[in-house]
Amino acid sequence: MALPERRKQDLLDFIIDTVFINDKETFIYNRISALITKYVSLILNVVLDPDANDFPIETLKDIAKEYIKSDIPLYYSIVQLNYCFHTIEKLVLSLITDESKKVAFCIASNAVSMQLLSAESSFRYNEKHEYKLNIWTSSYIIRDTMTNSNNVELVYNQMGDKMQRLDMISSYIYTMPSDAVHLDSDGTWHIPEQLQLQVYNKDQVTVPLTKAEYLVSVKDLFRNPYMPQKRRYTMVVTPIFTSEVHHGLFVCEVDIAYFHHIYSISLELGTTLKFLKMYDEQQQTNQQLEYTLSVLHEKNRQLSKISTIDELTGLKNRRGFLTETQTVISSSINKGQHAILLFADMDNLKMVNDMFGHEDGDFALRTIATALKTSLRGNDIIGRIGGDEFVAFAILGSQQSADTLSNRIRNKLEIMNRNCDKPYYIEASIGIVDFVCEETLDIQSLIKKADDALYENKSHKRRSVLKES
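RESULT FIELD:
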């Protein structure tokens, strides 16, 4: 018997692996595979026994029933299981050579499939029935509230109209103020002194009230100007609540024949008032969120500005210059435009720092920044990318050239040096490279070329930073 048992286990493993080839990593695999293993094992007992010809149909159906009654269908659907059984059927039929046994197996397999199809049909019917039930149970009051929740007065007006249609002779919807009914620490009930009359329907007329009108003393609940006048009336008072939250009171005048409406109306009103409260809270939250987002946006804008600006000179820092310039160069709008990239290096910054202090060194750097800003246009991009290194990018106009810009900067510095009472010169070596804007151009390579051009200019700088006495 060892060999048949071994073969059965091998076949069982093969079938299970084939059926669940795509489902082994799912969390439901262990549970569903255990059922299918039991199912296939019973089938293989008959398939591998040459003397057996009858498959245990009822037992196989019991396994399917065990699946149907469990929560497995929520995660492994009947459609998936039917496909699984179809795969098993093909694999098992390939193992059977006896025609009568094939027929017997098909009968058993079809019986199980029919049971699953019946269960699937039942599931679908129940789903459809529950859906219809929920749709019909949802009241018109709740529907109208959700539709018009941004217009509270209209919602209450529609509530009053619905009360009249539900055979209410007169009706009143009161809501609780913020200090609603609650049990105090001394064991006494706290009752609000006033209620808010939101809407009433009387004499076939619905009247929603404004905030200035609708505060009614609890003591005057049944004797206020909104109650029926000059006739006898009997009112029924029902609390409006959801779970443990008391929203208010529903006061109505109704014939005894229609008392059964009151309970369902109070439940619907509870849901409606809860929804209105949630909607109002959501609107307040949204307003707060919008304000917070606007503040955050402004903070981010300021942070972005700070992160791209050089604090000493007010020019772009390395990050700001590289990002903005690369965007302009790569833009399809500027494709084919002639442009320049300028690299300027302050001469003798270390000497100024050593001889006169870092404050003078900072003054000199700011002076060069001013010379650059006044020499270029407002929409040109200027940056300080190192201690004494400056860069500028400009798209050339018809009246501009690299030499014109370079001379303008030197003239600005010359004038500043003449008018400045500092005992040292503030000068810079300049290198400029001109190019045509293309999407593929790299700003770093342009800076390198401008830097190389600058070093040809460096050889002409003054030997001494000091002005003559």
